[in-house]
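**Protein of interest**
===
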Amino acid sequence: MTENDFLDNTSIISYSAKNYEKTTYNAISEIVFSENSASTKWLNTYGIQFHDAYKKVIHQNKLDDFLIKLLGDEEHPNKVILLDNLLFVTTRVLITQSQKLDSEQMIFVVSSDFLWSIQEKSGDYFGWIRERLEGNKGIVRKKKTDYLLYLILESIIDNYQNTYEVNADLSADKLNSTHIKPTPEFTSLVEKRKQELFNFKKATLSLRDTIIKLEKVEIKDFNIKYFNELKEQTNNLVSNIDFELQELESKINLIFSIQGHRLNEVMKTLTILSVIFIPLTFLAGIYGMNFENIPELKYKYGYFILLGVMALVTIVSVWYFKRKKWF
């Protein structure tokens, strides 16, 4: 990856209560975080593979050298590492734009006066934050990087929540209790929804773990009070997901119950028919034997008597089953 590739995927927003400036650069040497301490900088990079460029930015801004190793690893579990007046934060974020849920690594390098967000893939959910900064809406330009990080994480959680609610509404229509059928198609829809919920829950728990770690850090001019609200939002989302998972599990159990009930009905019908026809088969078998000295074979009305006995056996059997309410 060339330096130009890095610069094409990188931009900086500098802001304060009175000023706003969005900048793109022609050289890495122009990227300076501490040029104006009164201004807060948000550097955003799409792509985690620009290792040489990261190294140059770290050296020229005299950041903690350990960042070079941390940014050299493209796969991280959730981490919140306190460095020299810096926070290194990583989390895996769910991408929800397509029907097939995917994920990406997201990295934040945070100090009291700058935030560097590094995203594995292009595109994000932070456009509304940029609009607020540019239009000076709300209090964001009066705050520092702690509040900016809070807004970014809140945007991720809100995206999870909105996507979950949309999918929950679609799922409620397709998996309505009145439409429950013990068919492979319906069972497949339930299992597909369960897999989506497991992905959402895993991503939400991952984000909550990062937020809990952020609540425990101590860094100069970095206020952790904002993150308690984010933890509550993730807890609420996890609770909603767990509730729907329980509903889906109930539907699966109901499907098995319906299948079992239908099987029992079939077996009961077959059993009743068997019980009716066993004595008839027995009688037919007796008089179908090839012995000459069967007395009834010589009766003039023997055939009709046997049919009458068979009809009587059938009527008595059906009457008995109905009395027992077996059908």
In short: The domain at 262-323 is CATH 1.20.58.340 (Methane Monooxygenase Hydroxylase; Chain G, domain 1). Residues 182 and 259 are 6 Å apart (CA to CA). The longest helix spans residues 227-286.
